[in-house]
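Sequence, structure tokens reproduced for reference:
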Amino acid sequence: MELVIYVRDNCFESGKALDVASWVKRINPNVKLRVVNMDRKEDDFKSGLPEVTLYQGPIYIFNDEVVQMGNSDGGRLIEFFKDFEKEHLN
């Protein structure tokens, strides 16, 4: 199981995505987790990114499938994580 979270430097929502990454690791430490900052990678790396990463971010990809683009509004971030856990981690 692998969760990749794509983030960007100037994206406020990307900071919240780091909280989600932390929650995922606490709940299920067996998940391989990568946080990729799209603004800090070399051009040759960017050419291999999925097309969806043209989106501002954050983008959650679980086992090569986009499961969420952006964060849910406000308090719904926790709901998103709980739904993610039910669908993907159990």
Observations:
- The domain at 2-89 is CATH 3.40.30.10 (Glutaredoxin).
